[in-house]
Amino acid sequence: MMHFGNIVKKSAENNNITVEDMAWLMDRSADEVVSLYHTEEWTSGNIKAASEALNQDFGSYLNRTIEYDFVKKNKLENYHEMLINIKYPVGKENLFEAWLERTWLMAQSIGLEVEG
How far does CA 90 lie from the centroid of its chain? Predict the structure, then answer.
């Protein structure tokens, strides 16, 4: 896995975007951005925020066999909405959250709009 912090930092520097500007664009504090620059693995929320801030799809670094798309698209498409309820056993919260994070990434990778 590539070091997300280094990748995003280099992209920001190549676009002459300061830490303070990146913090504003990502809706994070400057300290959080500096910390992210030093972090190898990012959450999907941070990857999406950086992708939107720099208008670059950093999801392509997750898995080259899947086309991720973390950059906002024009909202001209029509959507159907499906609400689901999932029951899981008490004590399995961590496993469920891990599964849900992966499912969220897969949904975004095929262009689904996911709210959470």
Answer: 28
Residue (of 54, 51, 77) closest to 62 by Cα position = 51
Q: 36-48 pLDDT, tens per residue?
A: 999 888 887 888 8
- Minimum mean pLDDT range among 70-74, 81-85, 94-98: 70-74
Q: Map out the domains of the chain as residue ranges.
A: 4-109
CA–CA gap between residue 22 and residue 115 (Å, rounded): 24
Is the entire prediction scored with pTM above 0.70? Answer: no
Distance CA 99, CA 106 (A): 11
CATH of 4-109 given 3.40.50, 1.10.10, 1.10.260, 2.60.40 = 1.10.260
The greatest distance separating any two alpha carbons of the chain, rounded to the nearest whole angstrom, comes to 49
